[in-house]
């Protein structure tokens, strides 16, 4: 349960930072931390497909954010 709370808190933090216009580098650091927290949640609880989908989505978002501009 604590892992789920950490994931939700991190998501809220990322949304707040994005609204406040934080630098992309800071947002990427938060997304990386989110991915780690989501993986911890999934490995602890094996809560099902929703967690696995959240991890896959986070990985995809991180990869897209790290891609060079104009790539893809």
Please describe what this structure looks like.
This protein has 72 residues and is mostly helical. The chain has one domain (2-66). 81% of the residues lie in helices and 0% in strands. It has 3 helices and no strands. The chain has helices at 2-19, 24-45, 49-66. Helix 1 packs antiparallel against helix 2. It is globular, with a radius of gyration of 13 Å.
SSE layout and pairing:
Elements: H1 2-19, H2 24-45, H3 49-66
Helix pairs in contact: 1-2, 2-3
Short descriptors:
single chain, 3 helices
The proportion of residues forming helix, as a percent range, comes to over 70%
Order of helices and strands: HHH
| Average pLDDT taken over every residue | 81
Distance between the termini: 38 Å
Q: Supply the helix-strand structural class.
A: mainly alpha
Please outline the major beta sheet: none
Number of helices: 3
Low-confidence stretches: none
Strand content: under 5%
Instruction: Calculate Rg over CA atoms.
Output: 13 Å
Strand count:
0
Shape: globular
Number of domains: 1
Summarize the structure.
The protein has 72 residues and is mainly α.
């Amino acid at each position: 349960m604590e892992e789920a709370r950490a994931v939700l808190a991190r998501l809220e933090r990322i949304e707040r930072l994005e609204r406040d216009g934080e630098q992309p580098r800071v947002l990427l650091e938060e997304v990386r931390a989110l991915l780690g927290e989501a993986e911890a949640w999934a490995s602890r609880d094996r809560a099902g497909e929703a967690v696995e989908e959240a991890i896959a989505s986070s990985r995809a978002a991180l990869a897209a954010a790290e891609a060079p501009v104009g790539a893809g």
